Each structure stands twice: as structure tokens, then as C-alpha cells.
Amino acid sequence: MARKPNQSPERGDARTRLLEAARDIIRQKGFAATSVDDLCRSAGVTKGAFFHHFKTKEALGVAAAAFWSQTTGALFSAASYHAPEDPLERILAYLEFRRSIIGGETFEYTCLVGTMTQEVHATAHPIRDACAESIFGHAATLEPDISAAMRLHGITADWTAESLARHTQAVLQGAFILAKAAGNAELARESLDHLIRYVRLLFGQTAAL
Amino acid sequence: MARKPNQSPERGDARTRLLEAARDIIRQKGFAATSVDDLCRSAGVTKGAFFHHFKTKEALGVAAAAFWSQTTGALFSAASYHAPEDPLERILAYLEFRRSIIGGETFEYTCLVGTMTQEVHATAHPIRDACAESIFGHAATLEPDISAAMRLHGITADWTAESLARHTQAVLQGAFILAKAAGNAELARESLDHLIRYVRLLFGQTAAL
DNA sequence: AACAATACCGACCGTATGGTATGTGTCAAT
DNA sequence: ATTGACACATACCATACGGTCGGTATTGTT
């Protein structure tokens, strides 16, 4: 029997399938515990394909972080939380949106780059740099709304829009850790509730939820 | 030359030295990326000693989490934040204390069990269970003060002391992730500031910091 | 002193891992 | 029709890894 190469899954998408596999498996097992063979098996490709697209495993990590930035960036920019006219309402809608997508299996709602950051955070580590860009890049998208809300509500505070934007991401990341520890997504939502209450209090609303 | 076994470091402390090495190295590289040889080298012991004290590498992970609970538990129970008479002041003093010990190299102030949780959070994983016990056990030590403060300040809220205690730990864990991503401890302190402001607002104080 | 238990050493083993070298099928341009 | 670039596949390699094993000091007990 002559060779029957694997071309049932469309040819040319091995790279994407590897990145999707990385996104899911690394969120379950972490970067170091995820082997190249794991990724190839899950993506349905061979090692040759892997190292054709990525020079090293580390290069895949960097690419996975970039892939994460792109896909989640598209998700967020298309989401409806940008609709309200009041910038504070947009912020609260963002947080509600983040809360609403927490559920199902842990690896389905937690953050890839947050997970990888925990493992590889030596200074000047390329994966860490890619993760940092993803996290802080996303945080930066919140700043305009926060600044606008501060102006509109006449807030003169000892905190900055930048710091609050980063804090929202810190709460999200920490919420994921507690949810992972307990194996319970509800714990993540619980912290999101506290964050939403905090933002309301900051802008002078009483803590009605 | 006859054999000259390693007995300059006092005999009998190999286990402790391995746990200390695990505490430091796992916080730098993560659990999976930390090899048994790494630990032995850092602790100045041999593999024989390692597997004499720990049946498997996973068993060391569990023991390291327990060791972490014990040592940090002793640190916290001896700390001076318990002194104030007003329970709210004790809570704020706790958060200030947590803030004050953030500094230096990343691996010196971040949380071992938070780091390990990110990697091994399959259900029924013994390391994850040990990490969860450490995190939620510590959170539980805050509940009495929060409950007392709620009573004293006449707070009837839609949140519980338990959930706020957990939220403080979520913020801490998330603050560590951002600090790791940026390689900057200041980012962790920044989130702690927001958390302190939140607690003040919750208990009716204005956000003076 | 004899003995047993404990703590530790260091060589060794099987396997899994990241990575390489080479080959093969596909497609587009010439 | 030929060529060359690309996207894979297959077989293979060197090493690093977790773990084992037989042995040797040291300590406590009787």
C-alpha cells in the first residue's frame, strides 16, 4: 500500500491547528508540562510540521501568546459592551461581559498568557515579553473609557485610569487562580462582583448590584 | 582517599533544605520546569536523599505546599497586624502588611501555591488540593475580623465576609501575575492600593489613602 | 558492644523529550 | 514539462528526566 498522507484536514492549516492546540492544552497543563508530542497529537500533525512552522518550542510559546492577543482582541472589539454612551456604563458593561464568559471547564475561560506568565517570567524571556504585551495591551484598551468616565463624573483622585485598567486585569487573573484552585468557576465570578462593586463605589454610585 | 560524605551541613536537614529549594526554584521556574536534579543541586544533596524523603516529585510538590502553609502561617500569626482593637483596622493593617512585604526579586515575594495552582489544576490532583487548602485556609483566617467589622459598622450587604476574604487573595494572586509579567513589583503594590481603597469604601470611609 | 533504624550517597536504568535530517507530495510560475 | 518553493511526513538522535538500587555512615536503643 502506497503512502496515504494526512490531507483530510485541509492542507495549510497545521500552524493554526497547532496554535489552537497550544491555547487549550497549555491552559490545562501549563507550558512546561505540555510536550511537543502532546501538541502534535492534539493538532493531528507530525513533528515535522511542528518544527517546520516553529523553530523551537519556545517560538511556539511566543506565537501562541500573539495568537491569543489577536483572537481575544477580535472578540473584545466586536463585543457589545462598547455600545453605551456613558463611558462608565461601558466600563461596567465590559466587566459584566468578562463575568458572563466565565463558565464551563477551567481551561475554557482562563487566560493563556496569564498562565504562561506564571511559569516563564525571567527577565528578557521572549515568552514573558509576549505575555506582558498581551496583558497590558488589553488593559490599555480600557483606559480611554476610564479617563472619559473620570472627566464626566468629575473624579479627581489619587489613582489613575492606567492603574485602574491594570487592576481590573489583576483581579481577573487572580480570580482565575482561585477558580482553578477550587475547581469552581463561581469563585471567579465572585471576585468579579467585588470588582464591579468597587468601580461603582469609585464613581460615587452606592453599591447596589 | 576514602569517601568523604557531605556532612558539613548538619545531617538531618536534607528534607528541609529540599523544601526550601523547592519554595525558591518553583517560584522562579514553575513546578514542571523544575527538575529533581535542580532541587538536589540547589539543596546540596543527592538524588538518593531526595527519594528517601519524597516518594515522587509530585509528593515533594504536596510537601512544599504544606511547608508553605506552615511557614507563611507562622509569619502571619506572629505579625503585628492583629494588634488594633477595631477589626476594620486589623483588616487594613493586614493589607498594609501584605503590601509592605512586596519587593525585591519576583520569586521572593510571590506565592508558591498560587504559582503551582496555575500548572496543576486537574480535578483531584493532590498538588492542587494542597494548594487550595493553603490559599483558602489563609483566606479563612481573615473572616473573623471581616465579620466583626461588618457587625461593628452595621454593614448589611449583598456580600459575605467569606467572599471578601477570598477576594483579597484573588487580588494578591493577580497582582503577582502582573508584577511578574512586567518584572516590576510596583504593579503589585498598585493593585493592593486599589484593594485597600475598596475595603475602605465598603466600610463607609471615603477613599483617603 | 551489638543491633536496628534512619539518613544519605552515587551509580545506573528506561523512557520521554526537544530537535534534526531527509524525503515526498502539492501547487504556482515559467 | 520543468523547476522551485512550500507544507508537510517519517525516521532517527542525543540528552535530560524521573525513578531505582545496593551500599555506607550516623544515631539511638538495649
UniProtKB/TrEMBL annotation, chains A, B:
Residues of the DNA-binding region: 35-54
Gene source species: Pseudooceanicola spongiae
One MF annotation (Gene Ontology) recorded for this entry: DNA binding
The name this protein goes by in its record: TetR family transcriptional regulator
Organism domain of life: Bacteria
HTH tetR-type domain segment(s): 12-72
Entry keyword set: DNA-binding, Transcription, Transcription regulation
Pfam families (UniProt xref): TetR_C_13, TetR_N
